[in-house]
Records
---
Amino acid sequence: MKNTLQLISIQHELGMAIGLNLLLRPMLKHFSRVCMRRLGLAEIHAYFYSSERQTVNLSVQADDELLTSFLNLPVTEFGLDQSIINDTFSKLRAANSSYSVHQRTPSANTDSEYVYFFNLGDFGLLSLHRMQQPLDQTILNLLVPIVQRLTVSCQASIEHEQLLQAIAARDKAEQQIRFQLNHDELTQLPNRRLLLKHLQTAIDHAAATEKMGAVLFVDLDRFKSVNDTLGHAVGDALLCAVANALVSVVGRKHFVGRLSGDEFVVILTPERCSDADAKVCLRKILQQVQQVFILPIKANEHLLQITPSIGVEFYPQVAMDADAVLRNADAAMYIAKSRGPNQFVIYDRSMSEELERRLEIEKQLQVDVKRCDQFYLVYQPQYTDAGTCVGAEVLVRWYHADCSPAVFILVAEETGLILELGFWILTEACNHLREMEVRGIIDNDFEKLSVNVSAVQFNQPRFVEEVIGIINATGVSANLLGIELTESALIKNTEDMVTKIARLSALGIHISIDDFGTGYSSLAYLSRFPVDSLKIDQVFVRDLHSDAGNRAVVETIIALGQSLGISIVAEGVETEEEKRALVQAGCMLFQGYLFSRPLAHQDFVTLLENGSGAVSAIPNLSGSR
Amino acid sequence: MQLVLASKECETPTAVSLEAAIQHCLAASAQSIFILATDADGWDKDRVDPVLQAVKVPLFGGIFPRIIVAGECRSQGTLVLGLAFSCDVVILDSLSTLNSATVERCLLSAESELSNAKTIITLIDGLANNIELLTECLYDNLGRGTAMFGGGCGSLSFERQPALFSNRGLIADAAVLAAFDIRHSAGVRHGWEILDGPYLVTGSTANILSTLNYVPAYEVYRAEVERHSTLRFAEQDFFEIAKNYPLGILGPDGDIVVRDPLRAEGNNLICVGEIPQNTTVYILESDRQRLVNSAADAAAYAINSCRKDNRNDSANVTTVIFDCISRCLFMGESFHEELEAIIAQLDPESIAFGALTIGEISTSRNGAIHLLNKSTVIAVF
C-alpha cells in the first residue's frame, strides 16, 4: 500500500508536469526539473533532429541526419557521445522497445552511473542519469506511459513551433514586401508611393488643424556627370550619402523620400504658425539642407562637390492634392535649376506657365527636327593674337521665335532629339565647308571648322561610321573638320572611347575638349586620347586680368597644354584686358565678341574671302553653342 | 587540508573588536575572511558596514542563532576565521522576489567566478523565499562538478534583519556564495524515522501545506500526532509539539527529506522549505540517541569520503559543521552530546567550527543540491 501510493504520486506528479507550456524547451525544462527532483536524477538530456537554428524536426530532413542535443540539465553536462545516442535510438526503434539501460563506472573511486534511454516517438530521445543506485523497476514501468504522454506533448510543441515559425516567416516576407513596395531599394528611403501617401495625410492634417507645411523638391546638379564620368557605383554611393545626410539634417520630425534618380523630396511637417513664420521655418531648414552640400560628399573613395537645386511649395493650398503639391515643387525646382546650380525657388503660378512653354518647345522641336529647314548654322570665328582667322566653331540656331540655343539644345539632349539634330548639323557644316573648299577661299591660315558633338551623340555605337559617311557623301577634306567634345563625353575612358577617338584622329579630324576645366574628370585621359586642343571655358576667362583664381586655373591649363603639345583656345574673350592676360599666360588662339560675334554662313564666307577683318555681327543671337 | 590560517573571537560585539579580529587574521596572511556571528551579539549595519567595506580580501559570513567554536555550541560571540585560500564571493540580492529567469541571469553574469569552483559555501537569508528555486538553479547551471554546503542565517525571533556578511557590508534577503577552488567531502544525516503515513500531498503552494489526502493538513497532522503521543495542540504552543514530529518527503530510494512545520495558519501548515504537490509525505519521529547517532554518522561518512579521495592529511583536517537549530531545540540540554559525537569522529588535532542554522544546504549523492531541515551537514576539507 505504502509503495503503491508513492508510485501513484510519482506518476501523478510527473504526469501533471507535462505540457504546461506550449513551447518545446520550457515545456521539457519544467518536466525535467520535476523529474530530476522526484526521481533523484543527476542529469537529464533531450535529443532531437534539429537544424542549425535549433529548429526541431519531427522527421529526418537528410539521410545522414543525426539526433543532436537539444536540452541539457544541468547545462554544464552534455550527455553522451552522439554515436551512442544515435545507436541507442536506432536499436530502440528496431526492437520496438520503450526504454533501455546503460551502466557506466568511469573509475574505481567514482560512483556508478545508470543511464535510462526513452524514445520520444520517432523523432527524439530522452536520457535520465542516476548516480549510485538504479531506478526501481516499478518506477521504470510507470515511466513508460509518462514518456508516451511526453512524446505527444513534444510533438504538439514541435508542430506548434513550426507553425509559429511559418507564421513568422510569412510575416517577415510580408513585411519585406510591404517595405519594398513603399521604399526605394538603393537608399531605403520612402519611395514615390509612400511619399505621396504621407504628403496627402500631411495636407489633410494641415487643412484640418490650420497649420502650414512645405515640400522641398531636391534635385542634384550635374548628377548625370557623376554617373557618366565616375560610373554608376559611385553615383549610387553618392545618392546613399545624400539620402543619409538629408535624413540626419531634417531629423525624425520631418520626412525624406526619394522619387527617382537624383530627385529627393523633403516634407516638412505642418507647424501651427502664420505664413510669415512658416517661411522663416522653411528658410532655416533650407539653410540646413544646403549646409549638407557645402563640404564635399564622400562616395566610395571619391569626395564629390555637388549642389542641389531645390523647389519649394507650401501646403495646404485650396483644393490641391499631394500630386499637385509635388508637381508644383517640381516646377519650382526646374526653374531653380535653370537659374544655375545651388539655387532654390519657391513656387508661384507663373512657373507652371514656364513649364508648359517647355513642353511646347519640346513638341515643336520634335516636329522641326524632322524637317530641319527650321534650323541654320552660324560661325564663331577663331583668331590668333595677330588677328588672323584660323577657323570657326559651328553653332546651331532655331528659327523658333523666342527660344535660345541654351534652352532648345538642352531639351533636344533630354529628349534624344539631339541625335537627329546633331546628324543634320554635322552634315550641313560639312556641306558648307566643302562649298568653301570648292570656291577656293580656304587659305593656309585656315585650320578647321569645329562642330560640337554632344555626349549622347558621341556615345552612339556607330558614331564614327556616321562621320565617315558624311565626309564621303560631302567630299569634304577630313583634316579641315574638327569635333568638339565635352569632358563628360570622354571621361568614361573606356576602350571604346579610345578606339573612337583614335579612328577619328586617324582620318585627320581635329579633336577638341570643350569647356575644359568644368567637369569631374581627372586629367589622365588627356594622355590616352589624341586630343589636339583644349578650349578654356569662358567662366575662367571672365575678368582674368583681375581674378587671381581664374588666372591660376588658366595658367595651369595652358601649362598643361604646352607640356602635352596641345593647343589652347580661349572662349568668350570680350575685353582687351582679358586678351592681354591670356597672351601673357601663353594662350595663342581666341574666340569671343572682342574679335567677332557669330556670323551667318554667307558673312563667314565673306570674312574668309576678304582675308580677315571686322564684319557686322548678325542680330538676335544669344548663347554660344 | 589546512583551511584556517588564523581565528579570533571578538572580545566584545563592537566595531573595534571586529576590526581587531579581522586584522589578526589578515596579519596571518589570510586570503579570505569567514565570519560566524551569533544573533545575540546584535550586529547592525551601522557598526559593521564600515569595517567590512574596508577589508580588501574576499569576505563572507552570517549571523546565526548559535555558533560552534572548537566543538562547543555558543549562544553569544563572534568568530572571525582567516582562510588559507582566496575565493570569489557572489551575492544574489532580493532573493525573495527572484524568479527562475532572473536567477539564471545573475548566475550567467557571475559565470567566470562560479564555473570553475569545486566548493561553494552557500549562506542564505534563512527567512527568505525562493531558497529551493536558488538551489535548483545553482545545480542546473553549475552541474555536478561543483559541490555545495551551507545554511540559513537569521534570528530565532523570525524577524527579518540583515544577517549576511559581505565586502559590501551586512545584507538581507540575499544569498552569499563563496566559491573556492578546493574540494571537500560532505556527510549529511538527520536521524528522523517514519512514525505515520504515507500521505499524498493533495494541496500545497511552495512551503504552505493545505491538504493531505484531500483533508485539511493541520487536521490530519494534529489528529495523528495526538494519537501517537500525550501532547495536545490545544494546550501547548504549536512548535513546542511540532519540533518533535517533523514531516518527511519520501524519495525514490526510501530516503527522506525532512520538512519542519513551523506554525499552523488556519488549516494550513507553514513549513521550512517547499512541499511539492503530489509528493508523498510522512510524519516523523526521533529521540535524542538516534539524532546523536545520525550526527556521528554524518561526520564518519564525511571523514571516510575524504580518506577515499586521498585528501586526508589528518593533522590539518578542517571540519565545518552546519547543524539545524531545531535539533538543538529538540535535544535541549543534551545537544552537547551531538557535538561531542561529531568531534569524536574527527582527529584530535583537527579544527572544527560551524553554526546552528535555519535550514541546511548540501549537495546530495546524486548531485542535486537540496534545502534540508533538522539535518546535520558535515564538510571536511
---
Amino acid sequence: MSLQPSDTAPPAASDPTPDRSSAEPSHPAPEARPEVPVKKTRRSGCLAWLLLVIAVFVGLMLIPGGEEEVAEVAGEFELHPIIEIPAIGPIDLSITKAVIYLWITVAIIVAISIVIARTLKPVPGKLQTIIESLYELARDGIAGSVMKQGAERWFPFIGGLFFYILISNLIGLIPLPFGEHEQLAFYAATGNLNVTIVLAVFTFVFTQYAGVKAHGLFRYMRSWAPSGAPPVLKQFIWGIHVISEIFRLVSLSVRLFANMVAGHAILAVFFAMALIFQSYAIAVVLQGGSVAIYLFEIFIAFIQAFIFAVLSAVYIGGALEEGH
Amino acid sequence: MEADAAKLLGAGLAMGLGAIGPGIGLGTLIGKAIEGIARQPEVAGELRTSMFIGIGVTEAVALYAFVIALILIFVA
Amino acid sequence: MLNLDWGLMVWTVITFGIAVFILWRYAFRPLQKVIDERRRRVQESIETAEESREEAHRLLDEYKQTLASVRTEADQIMDRARHAGDQAKAEIVDEARKQADRAIERAHEEIERDTKTAVATLRAEVADLTLLAAGKVVNKSLDDAEHRRLIDEALKDIEKADMKLGERS
C-alpha cells in the first residue's frame, strides 16, 4: 500500500505534457494493483480465524469433560406444591410453580396497565408508541381482520387472551428461581394442559354464547347443518359439526400447550446434551445452537399467542355470522 | 420386548411419523403464501395472517403426535 | 403436566379473569380513548386546515376585489382632484385677473381723481396767481369778488375746451 503514492505520482506529473497516450494506459495499472493484496489479506484473515476456531475446538475436545450429571428434562414440568393449601373436595388450591407463574403474568399485566393508565399522553413517547402498536396489532390485526362483526364487543376478551398468553409465554423464557432446589430454571404456565384447556374453554363458551345470543338457541343449532341437504345427511353433518366444535377445544389447548412444552424440551435437551456428551467442544456448539433455539422460541411465543387469539376471534366471529 | 422399550419406541415413531405430514403441509402452505405475496404484495398483510392461521392449524397435527408421544412416555 | 389439576384450573380462571378485567379497564379503554382522541384531533386539524385554506382563498379574492375597486376609486378620486384642481386653478387665475383688472381700474380712477384734484388746485392757484398778476398789471384794484367771477368765467372756458379735448382723446 505504501508503494501506491510513488506509483501514481509519475502519471500525475506527466499529465500536463502532450504525451497523454503513454500516461493513460499506465493509469489503470496502479489502481488495479492494490486490490489484489487486500483480497489476499481478507482471505488469509478468514483462514486464520478458521484455523483459530478449529484449534480452539480441538483444544476443547482434548480437555476432559466435567462430572457426569443426570439431566432431568421431564422433571422441569412436574409440579410440586410450594405452599400447601388444604384441598376443598377435588380442588387443590396449593400454590405450585405454575400458579406462581400465572400470578407473575397477572402482576406484569397489572403493572403495564397501570403504567399505561398513568402515563398516557395525546402525543405518544417511545414506550407509548410500542404499546400502542401492540394494541393496534391486537385490535386490527387479530380481532378486526378476522371478525366481520362484533369485533368491538369481543375485543377485550380476544386482546386479553393475546396479552395474557403472550406475557405468560415470554415469562417462560426468563430463568426464574423456581426450579428444583430453587435453582434458576425455565418454566411456562402455558406449558401445562390445565391452563391452556381453561383458556380454550373460555373461547368455547364465549363462542356458543355469542352464537346463541346472536341467533337464538334453535336457529344457532340449526345453522350447524346446511339447510338444503336431505334430512339424514343433515343429521350426519350436524353430528360432525358438534364433534368439530369440541375438537376445536382440544386443538386450541393442545397446540399452545404442546408448543410450549416442545420448545422448552428442545431448549432443555440442548442444555442437557452438553452434560450427556461431556465435551467442552460440543458444549460450545450446543450453546450457539441453544441461543438460536431461544430466539426462535421468542418468535414462537408471539406466534402462539397470536394464533390462539386469532382462532378464538375466528370461532366467535363464525358463530356471530348468519348460517354456515 | 420390554414394555418400557416399546413405549419409548412408540413415542419416537409417533413423533417422527406424525411430523411427516405437517412438514409437507407446512412447506406447501408457506410456499404458496409467499407465492401469493410475491404475486400480490398489496394484500401481503391479509395473506400473512391467513398463513399464520394455517400454520397453527397444520402444526396442530404434529403437536397431537407430540402429545401422544408424551402420553406414551409419561402416562401410559 | 398432563394430569387433571382442578386447583390450577381454578387459579387460571381467577388470574385470567383479573388479567382481562385489568387490561380492559386500565389498558384498552384508555388506549382506545387516546387513539380516538388523536384521530379526532388529526381529523379536526385537517378540517381546520382545509377551512382556513378556503378562508384564505376567499380573503385573497376579497382583497383582490377590494384592491381593484380601491384602485378604480383612487383613479376616480385622482381624476376628480385633478379636475377640481384645474377648476380651482382656472378660478384662481380668473379671480386674480379680475382682481388685477379691478386694481388697474381703481388705479385709473385714483389717477383720474388725483388729476381732477390737481387740476382743481392748479386752477385755484392759477386763479390766485392770475389775480395777483392781473392786479399788478392793471394796478387797479378790482374788488375781489369781481375778480373771482371773471377768473371763473375764464377757467370755465378753459375747462370746456379741456373737456372737448378729453372727449376727443
---
Amino acid sequence: MIGTIARKEFSEIVRDGRFKWTAGIMVLLLLTATLAGYQKYSGYMRIQQLAQGESNTQWLKQGDKNPHSAAHYGNYAFKPAGPLAFFDTGISNYAGTAIFLEAHKQNFAIGRPATDQSSVGRFGDLSGAMLLQLLMPLLIIFLGFTAFAGERESGTLRQVMSMGVTNRQLLWGKALGVGTVVLIVVVPCVLVGTFVLSMADLNIVGEGMGTRVAALSVGYLIYGGIFLFLTLAVSAWAKTARTALMVLIGFWAFAGFLAPKAASEISKAVHPSPAFGSWFSDMRSHQIRGLDGESPWITVEKYKVELFRKYNINSIAELPVYWPATRMQKLEELDHPVFDLHFGKIKSSYTEQRRIQDRLGFVAPTLPLRSISMGLAGTDLIQHIKFLEDGEAYRRYMVSEMNGYLSKAAASMNATYSSSNYMRADEKVFSIVAPFEFDPPSLSATLREHRGNFVMLIVWLAAAMGAALFAVKRMSVEKG
Amino acid sequence: MLEAINLKKAYGNMEALKGLDLTVNSGDVYCLLGANGAGKTTTINLFLNFIEPTGGTAKVCGIDVTEQPLETKKLLAYIPEQVMLYGNLTAMENLRYFAQLGGHDYAPDEYRGFLNRVGLQPDAIDQRIKTYSKGMRQKVGVAIALAKRAKVLLLDEPTSGLDPKASNEFSQLLLQLKADGAAILMATHDLFRAKETGTRIGIMNEGRLVQELSTDEVSHADVERIYLEHMHAGDQYSQKVA
C-alpha cells in the first residue's frame, strides 16, 4: 500500500513542471559547487604545499648565523586542508591560514581569505554543504508542500480517504515518494562529489575519508528527513497549500539564515571574546611582571644562583652550558604559561561560543548539522584551534632546539661572550629542526565531539515524524 | 446494506441532521432529494466517516462506520459531484492507483475492461486526466467503483453539470450496478433522473427525512408536486419561526 502511494506520488511529482525546473537548477548548482569547490581546494593545497616548502627552505638557507638569531628569523606554519574542505568550507574563509613562528612571541594566524573577497563574498561560498543545507530543504518544501494541502484543495483527498486507506499509510507513502524524488536529484551529485574526492591525495589530511563521507551522508540524510516530515506535517495541518508554503518558507528562512546568525550573536553575548586592547596589555604585563608577580629577570637571576649551586661554581665563565642561550630559553619558558593563559582565554571563549551554538540546536536543525558538517570536513573551529596549538608547539620546539643547541655547542664561550664574538651556525644545525607537520584531530575525536549534535538531529527527526503523525491523525478532508 | 439509525449531526447549535432513519438494500437505488443544506451531503459524509455523528449510528453491511471505518470504506465506493483525479496521471494510472488503495489489483487488461465497460473511448485510456471532460471523469469514477467491487455506492449529485447524453449514460451504468446487486444512495437535484433510475425516493428538508416514495407508485408529475409541497411547507415554517 505504502509502495503504491509512493509510486503515484513519485510519478505525479516527476511529471510536474515544478520538478523539472527545481531539480534542474539544483543539479546544476550542486555540480558547479562540487567542481568549483574541488578546483578551489586543489588550488589552495598546491599553494599551501608550495608555501610551506618555500618557507622550510628559507629556514634552512637563511644564512650562517647564531642559532638564537635563527629562531628569531623563524618559519611559517601553513594550514593544510582536508579534501572534504571542497565540500564544506566551514570557517576557513574567516580563520587564518598561516602563523609566523618566531622566538619570544606567539603570533595570531594571518591570511584570512575573506579579507581578499569583495562584499559579495559575505553571502557565503557556493559550496556543496551550503547547497545541501539551504537549497535541499527548499527543494523538499517545493516538492512536498502540496502533498496533503494540495490534494485537499483539489478534492482528491476525499476520494483517497474514501478508499479505506489509513492516514498513516498515506503519510509514509508520501514521505517515501517525495523522499525518493529528492534522493534522485541529490544522490547523483553526491556520487560525482565522491568521485572527485577519490581523485584527491588522501594522504595529506585524509584520515578515515570513507567513514567521514558515510557520517556526513547520514547527517544530511537525517536533515533531509527532518524537512521532509515537517513539510508533510505542515501540509496536512494547513488549510490551503498556500498557507503551507508560506509557513514552510518562513521556517526555512528562520532555520537557514536567522537561527545561525542569532545563535552566533547569543553565544557572543553569553561568552564574550576578550577585547584585544585589554587582552594584549594584560598579557604584556604578565610577561613583564611575571605571572606570580616576580619579574622574569629576578627569576632568571635565581635560576643562575641555582645553577651555580648545582655545579658548585662562582662565575658564569665556569658554567658548563652557554649562559646567554640558557637564559634565553629560561625566559622563553617563563612566557609559556603566560601565553597559555591568555591565548587560552581567547580559545576557550571561542570554544564556549561554539558549545552554546551547538546547545541551541533545538531551535533549528541547521545548527547541529552545520556543526557536524564542518567538523567532519575538517574546516571547523576545533580543527583550527588544533592547528594553532600544533603551530605553537612547533614554535616552542624550534626555539628550544636552537637555544638548546647553542647552550651546548657554545659552552666554552661563556668567558669570551660579546656582541661581536658569538657562535655562528649553518644549515646543518638548522636542519635539526624537523619540518612542521599538522596533526589534525582524529576522526574518532571528531565523532565523539559531535555525538550531541547527532543526538540533536535524531531528536529533530523524531519530533518532525511525531508532528507529521499528529497532523495526519487529525487531518480534515474538507476544504476551508 | 446501508442503514442510518436516528443519525444526528450538529455543528454547534446548528443541527444539520436531526435523527435520520434510512435503509438502502441491495438492488435499491435510493435517491435523496432536497434543497441545498437539507442534509444530503452530511448524510453521505457520515456514511464515509469523514465527519463524526453527534448521535445515532450509520452502518454499512451491518458494520458501524465509526467503529470500523476502514472495513466499511472497503465495502463502499464514493462518487462526488466532481470525481477528482490526478491530472498528470492517465485514466489507467488513476484507476490502478485507486484500485490498489482499495486493496485490489488487476492485470492491465482487466483495468482496460473496467474502463471499456463504463464507456470510455479506448484511445482516451492512456491520456492524462487533465485533458478529460467532466463526463469522462465521472466514468472513471464509476470504473473505480467497479474495480473496487463495491457493495454500496454513495453518490453525491454525480450527474449535475453533465450534458443530457452523458447524464443518461451515467444512469445506464447505475442501472447495471443495481442489477449486479449494489445498494446505491444518491443525493440529487434531478427529479427526472430520480424517478427514472431510482427505486425509492426520500425527500429531505432541514435535516429531516420528510417523506419516502417508491418510484413505481408515483408519476413524474407526482414526484415534482410532492417535492414542491414539502419545500413550500418548509418555507412557511421558516417564516413562522422568523
---
Amino acid sequence: MKKALGIALVALLAGCASQTTQPDEELSADSGYGSGMSGSELMGSGSGRPSYFSQLNDPNSILSQRSVYYDYDSYTVKGEYRDLVLSHARFLRDNPDANVILQGNTDDRGSREYNLALGQRRADGVRNMMTLAGARDAQIESVSLGEEKPRALGNSEAAWSQNRRTDILYRGE
Amino acid sequence: MSNYRFKSLRGVWMFFFWLISTPSFAQLNIEIFGGGASRIPVAIVPFAEENALPQNLTPVISADLQRTGLFRLIDPAGSSPHAPVEVVYSDWANRGANALVIGRVAQLPGGQVEIQFRVMDVAKKSQLTGLALTVPTTQLRAAAHRIADVIYEALTGDVGVFSTRIAYVLKRGERYALQVADSDGYNAQSIIEYTEPIISPAWSPDGSQLAYVSFENKKPVVYVQTLTTRERRAVASFKGSNSAPAWSPDGKRLAVVLTNQGGSQIFLVNVDGSGLQRLSRSSGIDTEPNFSPDGRYILFTSDRGGSPQIYRMAVTSSESGNAERMTFEGNYNVSPDYSQDGKSFTFIHRHNNQFNVAVQEIGSRQVQILTNSRFDESPSFAPNGRMILYATEINGHGILSAVSRDGQTRQHLTVQSGDIREPAWGPLPKWK
C-alpha cells in the first residue's frame, strides 16, 4: 500500500516538472515517499546534532559542495551541477529528518524585482530536480534573495558569475 | 499694499509633518549636465530682507527652475528691484530676460514669515502673477518650492512638481533606510531603517502612505506605512516571496507579486490585506505590476515569451492568462511606469550591455532611449510627466538622477556617501 502511494506521488511530481529530465533510476518507486516515511520513524527525535552532518561536511564528498552557478539571464541547472544536485537529493531521500533551504541569487544588473523573481526561479528549479530524485517536498524550502545579498562585489564578470547562484543550506548546520 | 492683488494662500497652506526626529544623514546635491536649446530666460532678484531669514528663498527657487532644463537664469547683478515701480524694464530686456521675479519678505511675530513675490513680463511691462504666503520659518524651503511651482506654471502653462516628495532606499554600510525627501533631495527623513534590504517603495495616490518590501523577516514581505503616524502593517506576508507592490489609482487595492501558488505571479489585495485575488496566470515570471492612471490596465514584466518584456493586461474580476506584449526591441525590457496621462510608459531597456531609461508611446509604439549610462534602474515619472527620476551608478556608488522627458536635460542628485536606489516620485500634494 505504501509502495503504491509512493509510485502515485512520484508519477504526479514527474508530471509537474516540464523542464527537468532525470535518469530513470532516480524515478524508481523505492526512492519515493514510501521509504522516506519509515526512515523518519526510525530516526526518532534523538537529542544533539544529527550524525549525518559529518557526511555533509566531508571535503571528499560532493555533498560538501553547496552552490549551483548559472549563465547570465538563465535558470537552467547546467550539466556540470547535475551530480551535485542529485547527490543532495539522494541524501535528503535517505535522511528524512534533514531539511534544506535553497537560496536563489542573481547578479546586480537590471531590475531588483525581476532579479528577485529570477532568483526564485533558480531555487525552484533546483527544488524540482531534488523532489524528482526522491527528496520530499516538505524537506525543501526555496526562497530568493534576488540581487540583494551579493557574495562578490564589483562590476566584472568574475563577480557577477559568483552571484548567479543557488545555495543549498541545511537547517541546523 | 492693499492696491496690489495678491492671491492669499493663508489657511490652505498645507504641509506634511514628519514626526520622526532622526536628522537626515545624507544630503543630495544637484549637478546639471546639459540643457535644451530653447530655454526661457528668467531673472530672479534676491527678495528684500531674505538674508535675515534662516534659509534664503531665491537660491532654492533658482535651482528648482534650472533643474528642469526649461529655463536659463539671467544674472541680476547690479539691479535689485523689489516692487513693480522699481523695475526698469529696458534694463532687463537688454539683459535678455523675458521674465523677472521680484519679492520681499517680512518676519512676523510668532516665528511666521510673510513672503510676497511677483512674476513680471518684461516685454509687456506687466505682472504675470503674484502671490503672498505666510509660513513658519521652519517651512521656508517648502515655501520656496511652492513659489517655484507658481513661476513654473505661469511661464510654461504646465503644473509644477517642485512641492512633491520623493522616496528612495539608502544603503550605508549594513544599514538600509527608506527615506523621503523634497523633490530636490533636501529634507531627507528616514521612515524606517533595518539591517536587511528594503526595495520597491510605492506612493499611495494621496501621498499619505508608502508600500514597500522589507526583508527584515529574512524573506520579502509587503508593508504599508502611514507617513505621519509611522503606523504600518503587513499587507502581503504569504508563504514564499511577497513583493512589487503597486497602488490602484483609487488607493484601495495593491497589486503584489506572490510565489505561494508557484512561480512569481501577480495578485490583487485590499490595502487592509483582505480580498486576495489572483490576476495573472503564466508558467513564467510575472512581476513589476503598474496600474494605468484610469485603473483599467496593468503593465508588468514577464518572461513568458522567453526574455523579460513588458506586457499589458486588463484588470478584471477574474484571473487571466491574456496579456498584450508591449515591447519588442531587444531582449530585456523591465520596470514599467505609466505617465500620468496614460499615453506612455518609462522602463529600463538593455542594449549593448547597458541598462538605460527609455520611454515608449503606447499608441505608436515609438521608443526613445533617454540615457547613456551603464546601470540605470527603477525609472519613475514625475506627476506632470515632464521628468523621470531613476537610479544609476557612478564610481561604484548608487545615486539618483533625473532626466527630462525629451532626454535633453539630465542631472544627478548625489549623495555624499552610501548607495541610493529604488526611487519613486510622489504624487502632487493635495492642494494642487
